[in-house]
Each structure stands twice: as C-alpha cells, then as structure tokens.
Amino acid sequence: MAPLAPRSGDAIFANVERVNAELFTLTYGAMVRQLLTDLEEVEEVNKQLDQMGYNIGIRLIDEFLAKSNVSRCVDFKESADVIAKVGFKMFLGITATVTNWDADGTSCSLVLEDNPLVDFVELPDTCQGLYYCNVLSGVIRGALEMVSMKTEVTWVRDMLRGDDAYELRVKLLKQVPEEYPYKDDE
Amino acid sequence: MRMFHVTSISYKRLLQDLFEVSEGCSSLEVLREWNRPLRTLSSQQDHKLMFGLLFSLKSFTAKMDPSSVEKGNLGVPQLPGQGCSFHSFSTNSYKLSLMETPSGIKIILVTNPKTGDLQESLKHIYSLYVEYVVKNPLYSPGTQIRCELLNTALDQYVKNV
C-alpha cells in the first residue's frame, strides 16, 4: 500500500536545509530591484518574474516529490490542498488556505496570510502595476505543468497594493495524459 | 516523454541495468550501464523497446485492476492519478523494477531475479537525481543528462547496496 500523503509539511520543513529568512527576503528584493532597473517597464518585470518562477517550478517539483513522499493526487482538489499545506510549508515555511472553489472544482484561491517575500517592502508610486511576488505564481504554474496539469495562476489580492491578504487564483485549464513519443514507422 | 536509463553492475546478485525515464524529451537515455554482457539491439531500439514494454504493461495492469470500476480503453493514455501502476516483474533471468513519479520520471532497475524489493533503492536514486541533476544549473530540463557527479554517486551507491 502506498504511503499516505502527509497532511502537513511540518516534519519535512524541519528536515530540509534552510537559509536565513532575511537573507532570502533581501536577495529576492535585490533581484526585483535589478529587474526593474534592467527592464524599465513594470509589465516586463511581471513577465520576467513569472518566467523565472516557471523555470524554478519545473525543477522544484522533483525535489518536492522526492522529499515529501507525496504519491499521486487523485484530483485537482487534492493537489491544491497539498500545495497549500505541504508545498508552501516546505519551501517558504508558511501555509496557505484553499478557498473559493468554483462549482465544477477547476479553480480555487490560495490565500496567504503571511508572506516572507514582502518583509521590508513598500511599492513606490512608479511601480504600482508591479506584482512583486509574481515569481510564486510562476512556480505553481511550472510545478503543476510537470505533473500534467496546465493551469493559469493570477493574483487577486496583494497586500502591497492595499488589500487585506495575498490571494492567488489557480485555474485548471486541462490535464494532459502521458503520450507515446515514438511514431509507428520510426 | 523523456526517458533516461542507467545500466548497472552485477555484483553477486545485483543490478544490471538502471534506466531513468522522464517527461519532456523524445527518447530514453541510458544513464549508466554496469554489467551488460549481451547487447542484442542498437541502443536506440533498446530504448524504444523498453518504453513500449512499460507503456503497454502499464495500460494492461490498469485494465486488470479488480479494485477500480473506471478502466478506460486499452492503449489510451491515462491521466496522472488514474489507474494503478506496477512496481516490478521478474523472469527466470532478470527482474525489472520501476518507479514512476507523478512528474513523469521513470527510474528502472534491471537486476538479478533473486533481488528483493527495490522501491527504497529507487527512491534513493530519485533523490540523487534531484540533488545532482535537477539542482545542477547547467542542466536544462528535457536534455540529455551528462553529469559526472551523478554517475559517481550512482556507482558508489550501487557498490554499497
């Protein structure tokens, strides 16, 4: 019998290598700052952060699977739960809440009360369009794509923009089955 | 679908072959071969055969599953999370153990038929893969794995099994 998926990431979080939270926050901040200088356009920075997140996500998924002992998730609901409870805990030390499911169970919201990326951050007037944590949405999109789920991840609420929490909307577009990669006549 | 594939030693009664397979690229690659005296096919054909074997066996095992009602059609690819998957099979001359991760990585060990359960070893190999391949900035996902450190680590691990 397959081991049951852990319901919380606490045990795993205790065992993984960690870095100092301030170092992490400030490094991320420095990176966003550099992107703003290099790319000039806030829109471009959002895109770049998302792409970076995606590239992280497609690798991070394997580390997640190897260390968390999570086996297959039966459906999207379970996947969302595992991301919120185990994934966020393992890599950021926080947990998210899954809410606002739509009727057919293909989109939901991940709400973060606490977000280590934004300590010490204030958006200046010139960067109001910036999604500072856009890297997170990219990570989730990339990681889910590797387990055959095409998703769309967008920010709904952002404390840096004056909302009361961080809310990510995750929408499942389609599930892609494994394909047979060889042609018959090859 | 991308596969890689490591082939290994036969210490007394140990591993002969280790394939690793994963999503994203179109061929199976041999990561490591330790002892494989008889090579009957070209390596490309070898990979195709291995892939075909796993692909069909998986769909057959899912079809024969007595515990699930929803079976789907034979040969139709399954969504992740659907169906069951097999862990190993043995013949009189070898045993093949497989671990498939939800991200599509397949790790295959071909060993002596008397070897016991290898799920733990496969998990360990997966963690080596994460450590040396996934975390290697010079490796771009979907390309062939050329990583000396992984090879060294694998060799060492296999020696100590």
Automatic annotation (TrEMBL), chain A:
<dbReference type="Pfam" id="PF04051">
    <property type="entry name" value="TRAPP"/>
</dbReference>
<dbReference type="GO" id="GO:0005783">
    <property type="term" value="C:endoplasmic reticulum"/>
</dbReference>
<keyword id="KW-0931">ER-Golgi transport</keyword>
<keyword id="KW-0333">Golgi apparatus</keyword>
<comment type="function">
    <text>May play a role in vesicular transport from endoplasmic reticulum to Golgi.</text>
</comment>
<protein>
    <recommendedName>
        <fullName>Trafficking protein particle complex subunit</fullName>
    </recommendedName>
</protein>
<keyword id="KW-0256">Endoplasmic reticulum</keyword>
<keyword id="KW-0813">Transport</keyword>
<comment type="similarity">
    <text>Belongs to the TRAPP small subunits family. BET3 subfamily.</text>
</comment>
<dbReference type="GO" id="GO:0030008">
    <property type="term" value="C:TRAPP complex"/>
</dbReference>
<comment type="subunit">
    <text>Homodimer.</text>
</comment>
<dbReference type="InterPro" id="IPR024096">
    <property type="entry name" value="NO_sig/Golgi_transp_ligand-bd"/>
</dbReference>
<dbReference type="GO" id="GO:0048193">
    <property type="term" value="P:Golgi vesicle transport"/>
</dbReference>
<dbReference type="InterPro" id="IPR007194">
    <property type="entry name" value="TRAPP_component"/>
</dbReference>
<dbReference type="GO" id="GO:0005794">
    <property type="term" value="C:Golgi apparatus"/>
</dbReference>
<dbReference type="InterPro" id="IPR016721">
    <property type="entry name" value="Bet3"/>
</dbReference>
From TrEMBL, chain B:
<dbReference type="InterPro" id="IPR007233">
    <property type="entry name" value="TRAPPC"/>
</dbReference>
<dbReference type="GO" id="GO:0005794">
    <property type="term" value="C:Golgi apparatus"/>
</dbReference>
<dbReference type="GO" id="GO:0030008">
    <property type="term" value="C:TRAPP complex"/>
</dbReference>
<comment type="similarity">
    <text>Belongs to the TRAPP small subunits family. BET5 subfamily.</text>
</comment>
<keyword id="KW-0256">Endoplasmic reticulum</keyword>
<dbReference type="Pfam" id="PF04099">
    <property type="entry name" value="Sybindin"/>
</dbReference>
<keyword id="KW-0813">Transport</keyword>
<dbReference type="GO" id="GO:0005783">
    <property type="term" value="C:endoplasmic reticulum"/>
</dbReference>
<dbReference type="GO" id="GO:0006888">
    <property type="term" value="P:endoplasmic reticulum to Golgi vesicle-mediated transport"/>
</dbReference>
<protein>
    <recommendedName>
        <fullName>Trafficking protein particle complex subunit</fullName>
    </recommendedName>
</protein>
<comment type="subunit">
    <text>Part of the multisubunit transport protein particle (TRAPP) complex.</text>
</comment>
<dbReference type="InterPro" id="IPR011012">
    <property type="entry name" value="Longin-like_dom_sf"/>
</dbReference>
<keyword id="KW-0333">Golgi apparatus</keyword>
<keyword id="KW-0931">ER-Golgi transport</keyword>
